[in-house]
Every structure is written in C-alpha cells, then in structure tokens.
Amino acid sequence: MSKSINRELNDQSSKKNLAERLLIKLREVFPDADCSLRFRSPFELLVATILSAQCTDVQVNKVTKILFQQYNEPEHFVEISSEMLEGLIKSTGFYRNKAKNIKAASKEIIKHFGGKVPHTMAELITLSGVGRKTANVVLGNGFGINEGFVVDTHIFRLSHRLGLADGKLPETVEQELMAIFPQQDWRFISHALIQLGRNYCKSRKPDCNTCPVNSICKQLENISRKG
C-alpha cells in the first residue's frame, strides 16, 4: 500500500472517530435540535427555505406567519401577482428573485408533479430556485428522508474548524460528511451543528472558551498553538 493511500485511510479513520465523539456530544448538548423554520406542509417548507437564503430563520418565520395565512398552496402562488408577492416577502432580501423562483416552482409542481412537492433529490432539484441544500432541507424535514446532508454557511464553516471536512465547495463538504456520519443521524447532526454555529462557533468571533465541544475541536488546538 502506497504512503499516500495509507495517509488517506488514516485521515478518514481519524475523521470518523472525531465524528463519533462529536455526535455523542451534540446529543448531550442539543438533544432537541430541529428545523427552526415554521411550516405545516412540505410545500410551506419549500417556500420558507427559498426565502431563507441570505436571511435569518427568525425573519423568515415573521414573514411566513402572515404569508401562509392566505397563500399556502402552489395554486395560490401561481395566481398572486409578482408585485404582491414581492411586497409580502421584501424583508427577506433578494425578494424579486425569490418571488420569481417561488412562482416558477409552484407552476412546475402543478405541471409536473400533480400539485404535490416531489420527494426525491432528482425531482426536487429540477424546480426553480432549488439546489441540493434546499432539497435536503425539504426531504429531511418535510418527508423524513435522509438522502443528503444539509450544508449551509454554519455547517460549511464548522466542518472545517472541527476538522471534519477539507472541501472547498458545499457539495464536496456534503460528500465528506455523508462518509463519516451515520445516515440515520444526518438530519439531527445538521440541526445541531447549525445551533452550535449560531450560539458558539460564530463566523467572526467563535466563543471557544464556553463552547461545549471545545475539547474535540481542532480550531481550539490551532488557537492554543498560536498562543
């Protein structure tokens, strides 16, 4: 066996060991970690997830609390004017593009899927405004299907800080995480990591001293070495 292959196997084994320890800790700290977007159906979740791009879930929930009172089916978003929809979702940012994608996705759901949100990755990513991240959110939280691993900005950042992944793109990081965590835990882990990122491992100033996973975090080791 070549040295490069041996190093790669050792590295993968190390990451799996780290993942096992992290999963145990996350279950202790965030036992009830779940989706923070509020929804009553897979379609509402799809709309909320599209709105969540470059916007906090808190703000999205404020918008959808009003929006979903009147508009909560694909037919509703086909019928509503672009101007009206843009006004209702303006506070989420990038509202023109989001309104365009929501209306287009609604038409596609009606035309190609009988008015029901599809529940496979291959079908979901054919919808306007839906990439792997959005599809994974809908599959995991709307249908209870772990087909992929959600990689948002928090998870992308933490994956590197914790030494779980090395990829430069979300799609690459997703594959790395899928390889080291049990599939049945993908949904929980994504929500727990998001909570960890929001509460402790923030982008600009991670709170390493009080972080509940600091004992197994490579970021903390790097900070200690620099100190």
Describe the structure.
It contains twelve helices and no strands. Helix 2 packs antiparallel against helix 8. The chain folds into two domains: 104 residues, Orthogonal Bundle (Endonuclease Iii, domain 2); 101 residues, Hypothetical protein, domain 2 (Endonuclease III, domain 1, Orthogonal Bundle). The N terminus and C terminus are likely disordered. With 227 residues, the chain is mainly alpha-helical. 63% of the residues lie in helices and 0% in strands.
Strand content: under 5%
- List the domain count as a whole number: 2
Provide the residue-averaged pLDDT.
Answer: 92
Rg on CA atoms, Å: 19 Å
CATH H level of the largest domain: which superfamily? Helix-hairpin-Helix base-excision DNA repair enzymes (C-terminal)
Short description:
With 227 residues, the chain is mostly helical. The chain contains twelve helices and no strands.
What are the SSEs and their pairings?
Layout: H1 3-29, H2 42-51, H3 57-70, H4 74-79, H5 82-89, H6 95-113, H7 121-124, H8 132-142, H9 153-161, H10 170-180, H11 186-199, H12 218-226
Helix pairs in contact: 2-8, 5-6, 9-11
